[in-house]
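Quick entry, no commentary yet.
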Amino acid sequence: MERAAARPHVLLVCPGLEHARRGFESFARECFNALRGADALRVELVKGSGALQPGEHRVRTLQRDAPIARALGRAFGEPPFLFEQLEFALALQPLLLRLDPDVVYLSEWHTGRALSLIRTLTGRRFKLLLCNGTMAIERFEHLDCVQELTPAALDVVLQRGANPGRHRMLPLGFEIPAEFAPATPDERGALRARLGLPSDRPVVLSVAALNRHHKRLDYLIEEVARVDSRDRPFLLMAGQEEEETAAIRSLADEFLGAAGHSIRTVPLAEVPDLYRASDLFVLASLGEGLPRALIEALGYGLPCLAHDYPVARYALAEHGRYGDFTQPGALSALLGTTLGDPAGGPAAAARHRSAYERFSWDTLRPRYIELLRAVAAGTS
């Protein structure tokens, strides 16, 4: 018999929140902020570290950058975050027993697998809802519902035989203000001075994990270096450090020089300043679940360059600039035709409006409440 609750209790869990700098953590924070005041739900947040605010819980667990996590990763040939996610699922058990939620809502695949196994062994009754930013396409049997982030993702899993009743298309929500307020020239100059960015050349921003295997920052660096040195922009790369980051730093030093780039990791609260100080945004990856950074950049009115595939076109629609980023020279050609675009103006306002109307929490909050209530009731 399904559980019934007039105001379902939802635990939004994210092991990396407060110490990792990825899209999963950004989404967990924004989703909690958007839903915690909803009359139709009771939403609490569970994270792996950091200070606590009202409605939050902390489960101290192994962190992905800890020496033991890295050692386990080397020993088993797995990424360190896998061990963080698995231990988090174990450490979560006393809190689950005490709070007895209706729904556990999460983005981490391995945490979901572990929670499903423990749920079976213990006879717990909570439902598992996965926000499928991992681009998983099969083996969903352990989940009660899967949130697919784009129409293309939903089509793929259904074509592979997934149960249509367990998959719902709902894009990520974003904190995008209703009114477009770009930085004035004076504000931008002050931002660049404070952030250590040049004032005499365009700044191209990429917010992505600092790696080459997925985010392809090596391709981005090489393409920026193809631009004639007299017109070459400054490249700013911001994201979570990984094992490949050292090689990315060496490549950027070789191709762009110390004066031509910056690689940094910043707290989530400081990322908006990077968008407001930049002229152009690039995401060099060839595949994403739904690229948060592209939509964030669009919301700040920035021209956005992306590889041409269905998810990028869903995110940016007619406002994106697309190319075949598997080809050398494709991105540098787009840079050459885009760097002269004026900052701000009607085009920037239209980009912001597109992001706001399709992806803001103002727009999507009712659909999230509906989904969570349906999962709790067993009707998703």
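second:
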Amino acid sequence: MSNNEAIENERAKAGFFFTESIYPGVAMIQDLKNILISTHSNFQKVEVIDTVSHGKILVTDAKTQSAQVDEFIYHESLVHPPLLLSSRLATSQSLSLTANSTNGPKTVFIGGGGELATAREALKYNSIERVVMVDLDETVLEVCKKYLPEWGGEKVTSDPRLDLIIGDAFEYLMNSTETFDCIIMDISDPIEAGPGIMLYTQEFYTHAKKLLSPSGVFVTQAGVANPIHVEGVKIGSDMDTTCYGPITNTLQSVFDHVLPYSVNIPSFGSDWGFVIAFNSSKSSDIEVEDYSLLSHHEIDDMISKYITYKESDGDISQPDSLKYYDGICHRRMFSLAKSLRMAMKKDTRIMTKDNPVFMF
């Protein structure tokens, strides 16, 4: 074999890679098997890639949105803690309102959620009657239905309880007077060029609060949740591109009760933050304070009670897709690391229309 042939053989072994910046100074590199689609919508670049380690991944503007190996971690963590809390608040307050005989949630709003997996999780509740989902990017929805049907696909979009709207979630809610038992914001990160920044502001949260039933719960994804900061950048300064603290602070400026929590999502290369917010009467404050500390038996009992659902063919079955969330995971999710709690305590920023905070 000639030297040239040997060189070409070595080149043939070289793979292609997907490289993603996670936060300043840190990137994640994955072996890339295939690019299933690469297109542009009116708002962003949309791709579905196939990787060795994380399977199929939805990527928008070079950022991972969800991956086959762990999308269930993100979506179950986003949906089930607030929906179970809404059920618990309705029971503790003896509220009927929009709840059925089991006090389970009946109405849900989802902002974003183009992969359809957030709606998939919400529709598992036996009490759910109406899910309104408003997503800005129709291209993302169509790409996910075609290339990521495991996320939900036609089974979700054909569910008669789902009202799927292509539009601006901010505009929809700001013009809405409908009451919801849970508002779930599965939206783009608050980046400077992104369409979602207004959905993280004090003004928006103030209006969203008015759309919740008395047992209603608001939840939002809140970006990277770790205590790592770039050297030389002061926590909470104008140069700080972390948003978990500011989102939590902003919700605390509007709601009576705020519960930040996080999970590790390998395909994101980080722990990921979520924040629950809600109001409640003084008589139910003990329920509020105890929610994050419920025993794993209590959470598992609630899951069994509320998430027995009816399949499209009429059969009743226990969901087999709760691959992550259960009582033990619940306790871990609300136990933030001390270093993260200390960093968040130092960050006093509040996100407003005139003073937004942009994530890296």
